[in-house]
Write a sequence for this structure.
């Protein structure tokens, strides 16, 4: 079973089955409920059993059609995993950065980084886009909708506060 | 009819106020732009607009979302016709004949037909919605728990069976959605479930956060995976629009009428939506044509049929949302959240408690569909400019809005991390062809299904046969099983036909 698609799909199903088994094992409560009713875990248990059955069907079908799928897989093998991992890590870093340095600074850096990753190289374009997007979103959410966006910690808190004070009505 | 006249009058009075009317303009503009740019759909626009509805009243919020919905469905046709790259799935069929028309130098005519047919289809279906909603709502009032459960069950079966390439994938996605909806405190006994020791999980998982993750963030991850291999398509020269002449319009009248009826009906079915409506209408137009062999080479009927149908589906899709409180697809599921944020549960009772809201939605959708004609002209001219924006910049902006959308709901970073998690899940679902619509509908309808299922059993002494013995619920369950069996029967039939041919 070589190649990304068949392994990944198989793995996806396997994870699903393991999660469903784990959740079924914790589907009980110590809180006393009415004996005549079905109980709070009846509904999710039905769903989990359904998920388990479908997962098994999918895995069996997958193994059954292995040869046919690995041929298709070779056609779909051209995947830029490096860019994908970068963009996921970048998004993770952005959300973490928002907590640490505040929304405006983290957004400025994130837009520059993601645009650069997407192939944009002009410094003027990168600067204009990052400043423009950060200003517009900050203005809409802080200035117009009065939503308190994260301001970061330490000195960044004061910097963000000062930046937000500029765009507030 | 007196009720309808009163409600429509209320709607007209509200819509004519500038602070309400402006939201139709904004929604249409955003919908058309998002719909037209390949890779970001009208649905994504609706999802990203949700945080902007927090400070609005429910009427303004619904006008904004419904107009975006109408605009988004139309917008996809522009890139289909000009670039052979559908901006949204519902516009795939439009490209079959729209792009060949562009190649033949008839882009302006194809765009004109798309604008007119979208406006007509959407307008007529909005009228049908206006007329049909009140009688259906009064029927819905007579529904008891078993009927409601059967209806939800039918909707979930339909969406799982027809929204993806594989039935098993659709059902797995549905089960994931239903399970996620069951996290938190159980509806009847009030017992916490699957919180895994995290107090945040006791409040449940917000489906809007999940939607932002799987639809918007998952789409960005997915596009970046292939971005380096994508070719940038450009439009040569200035693009204009050329409306249909009366003679051309009269020649298309049966195609338009048939597609409108088909689109409205399919839109009404839970889970079916504009994409299936456009495919069915295109197929019907080709099969009933005197020259079916010309379809795909650039005939005007091939543009008129899907464009009428996909916009007609918008009015149809609003009917179950407004009358039963059951969303049929992603866009209407987001709209249900707008209701819930404002403390309203859509359904038959809203017709009595908030007639001004219902009237405003009716009038708003009728006007929005008529305004597509004006916006269509402007959008086509502006489209060439929007296409110049690289995807990386759009993705940066969308990610910022994803963060803001997830954060603004409760002002907690926890929601943002949940969104990122579901963004990654959304990427894998897209990659391995698990349809997202059943997951979302499972999350939206899961609590309702569980509540009605357990209430039915409590009311009828744990008698499971109650769902099958009552005529309405029994019929709905039967229809649901037919839909579930449909892909299997079709697969067997195809296999048999192939074997016979061989």
């Amino acid at each position: 079973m070589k190649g990304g698609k068949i392994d990944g799909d198989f793995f996806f199903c396997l994870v699903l089955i393991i999660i469903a088994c784990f959740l079924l094992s914790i589907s009980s409560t110590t809180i006393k409920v009415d004996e005549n009713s079905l109980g709070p875990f009846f509904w999710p248990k039905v769903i989990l059993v359904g998920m388990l059955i479908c997962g098994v069907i999918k895995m069996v079908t997958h193994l059954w059609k292995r040869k046919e799928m690995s041929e298709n897989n070779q056609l779909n093998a051209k995947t830029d995993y490096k860019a994908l991992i970068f963009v996921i890590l970048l998004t993770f870093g952005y959300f973490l950065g928002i907590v640490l340095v505040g929304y405006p600074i983290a957004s400025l850096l994130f837009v520059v980084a993601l645009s650069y990753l997407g192939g944009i190289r002009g410094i003027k374009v990168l600067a204009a886009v990052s400043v423009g997007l950060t200003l517009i979103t900050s203005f809409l959410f802080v200035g117009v909708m009065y939503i308190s966006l994260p301001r970061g910690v330490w000195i960044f808190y004061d910097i963000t506060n000062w930046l937000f004070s500029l765009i507030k009505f | 009819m007196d009720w309808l006249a009163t409600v429509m009058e209320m709607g007209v009075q509200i819509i004519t106020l500038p602070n309400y009317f402006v939201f139709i303009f904004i929604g249409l503009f955003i919908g058309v732009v998002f719909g037209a740019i390949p890779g970001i759909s009208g649905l994504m626009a609706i999802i990203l607009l949700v945080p902007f509805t927090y400070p609005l009243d429910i009427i303004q919020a619904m006008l904004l979302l419904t107009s975006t919905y109408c605009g988004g469905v139309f917008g996809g046709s522009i890139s289909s016709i000009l670039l052979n790259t559908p901006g949204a799935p519902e516009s795939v069929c439009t490209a079959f004949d729209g792009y060949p028309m562009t190649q033949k130098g008839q882009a302006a005519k194809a765009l004109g037909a798309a604008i007119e047919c979208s406006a007509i289809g959407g307008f007529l279906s909005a009228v049908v919605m206006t007329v049909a909603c009140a009688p259906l709502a009064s029927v819905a009032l007579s529904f008891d728990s078993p009927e409601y459960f059967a209806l939800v069950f039918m909707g979930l079966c339909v969406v799982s069976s027809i929204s993806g390439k594989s039935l098993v994938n659709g059902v797995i996605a549905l089960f994931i959605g239903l399970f996620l909806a069951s996290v938190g405190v159980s509806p009847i006994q009030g017992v916490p479930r699957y919180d895994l020791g995290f107090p945040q999980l006791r409040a449940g998982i917000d489906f809007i956060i999940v939607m932002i993750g799987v639809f918007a963030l998952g789409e960005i991850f997915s596009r970046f995976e292939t971005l380096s291999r994508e070719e940038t398509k450009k439009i040569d020269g200035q693009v204009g629009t050329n409306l249909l002449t009366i003679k051309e319009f009269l020649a298309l009248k049966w195609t338009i009428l048939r597609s409108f009826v088909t689109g409205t009906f399919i839109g009404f079915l839970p889970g079916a939506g504009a994409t299936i409506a456009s495919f069915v209408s295109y197929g019907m137009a080709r099969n009933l044509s005197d020259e079916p062999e010309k379809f795909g080479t650039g005939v005007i009927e091939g543009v008129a049929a899907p464009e009428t149908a996909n916009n007609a589906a918008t009015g149809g899709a609003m009917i179950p949302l407004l009358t039963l409180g059951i969303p049929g697809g992603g866009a209407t599921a987001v709209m249900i959240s707008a209701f819930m944020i404002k403390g309203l549960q859509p359904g038959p009772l809203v017709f009595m408690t908030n007639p001004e809201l219902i009237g405003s939605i009716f009038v708003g959708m009728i006007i929005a569909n008529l305004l597509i004609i004006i916006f269509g002209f402007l959008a086509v001219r502006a489209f060439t400019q929007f296409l110049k924006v690289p995807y990386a910049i759009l993705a940066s902006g969308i990610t910022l809005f994803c963060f803001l959308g997830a954060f603004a709901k409760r002002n907690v970073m926890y929601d943002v991390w949940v969104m990122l998690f579901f963004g990654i899940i959304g990427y894998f679902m897209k990659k391995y062809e698990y349809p997202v619509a059943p997951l979302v509908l499972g999350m939206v309808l899961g609590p309702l299904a569980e509540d009605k299922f357990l209430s039915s059993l409590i009311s009828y002494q744990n008698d499971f046969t109650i769902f099958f013995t009552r005529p309405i619920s029994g019929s709905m369950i039967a229809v649901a099983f037919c839909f579930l069996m449909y892909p299997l029967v079709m697969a067997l039939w195809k296999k048999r036909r192939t074997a016979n041919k061989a």
